[in-house]
Specification:
The complex is a heterodimer of chains A (about 200) and B (about 210). In chain A, about 70% of the residues lie in helices and about 0% in strands. Chain A has nine helices and no strands. Chain A is globular and about 60 Å long. Chain B is built from nine helices and two strands, in the order H-H-H-H-H-H-H-E-E-H-H. In chain B, strands 1-2 form a two-stranded antiparallel ribbon. Classes of the chains: A mainly alpha (about 200), B mainly alpha (about 210).
Chain lengths: ~200, ~210
Amino acid sequence: MTPVIDPFTLLVASIFTSNILLANFLGMCSFIAISKDFKSSNGLGIAVTAVLVITVAASWAALKYLLIPAGIEYLSYIVFIIVIAAVVQMLEMIIERVSPALYMTLGIFLPLITVNCAIMGAVLFMQIRNYDFIQSVSFALGSGLGWWMAIMALSAMRAKYDKAPVPAGLKGPGITFVTIGFMAMAFIGFSGMVRVQ
Amino acid sequence: MSQGPYVKVFKENLISNNPILVQVLGICSTLAVTNMLSNTLVMTVGVALVTAFSSWALSLLNKWIPRKVRMIVQVLVISFWTIIVDIILRAYAPEISKSLGPYVGLIITNCIIMGRAEAFAQANKPLISWWDGLTSGLGYMVVLLALAIFRELLGFGTLLGIPIFPIDFAGRGNNWTIMVMAPSAFFLVAITLWIFTTVKLNKAAGGKK
């Protein structure tokens, strides 16, 4: 069994050493599509972080108080995806009501988040690693911040190399993968800092 | 030259519209599972089956799904098939199921499945939708297996766990640990894309002459 990890270590670890994007490859699809634009990247980063924290907390509660007592853990995927869809939908409605300005910037990204693997992945990691509530929330927060940081870094770099003379065959997604690879290598440098698993 | 629709779909999904190389979809699992060949094999078969049966079911249900709740119905159908794959894996290959970890569940959010359901199954008959899903899965499988062969061979010196190279073929008792770690996946995908796109561009240039 994994030893009990204190929430702060978990937070730092999930931002740097086991970054959800660069070490676990989650949330790649929207990462590559959106990182073209710096402003949208920022918006999506905020949205992913918010949705991650809320859904992981909600799924934790669903797992603990609904699925395990009822003995229907095999239905967990369906329940999790419903929780994610419901949270995203509610968040969308709340933001639209409370702050139309924020809705204009974030609104278009919210539906995309339902199928963002980072969210589902974090929820499944939470289930597999048996995190308690505080651990789950700090893990979710760290993963969100890590994802946000990674997409900001990539989109900043992308603005530069989009103008660079790249070989024709490597244009577009190809060069983006090379860049992400270097980012992942840089992040491996953090791995001496804290260790989770 | 006349081709049956099945042959056409097969060719499209495998080469000219390959889900990974052309559409750049389903990248998450591409990168995560390819460091061991056996994991990759199981995962890709799972994805191909889920894609095939989800496309089939959604094409069958298409008439009765109101447009407003289409997305959520699609997700539910996909999770249903994923759960079946997950249960089968846990029963017959518990080791692999464990090492794949959350990535089996992540089949649900694999963009390829959603993409095929939206792009093809909506407008086509159940049987050919099934075929379309299956061949998309095959296109995904071919690329992943190629990546996995490279990564396992260079990273561990083995294939399917059978040693191919002597233990320290890279010298000083080290294998290319980088090949098993995250960055190599990104680089290998980039190289594959590069080769594929270059061949395609050359062909297009040759065709024009």
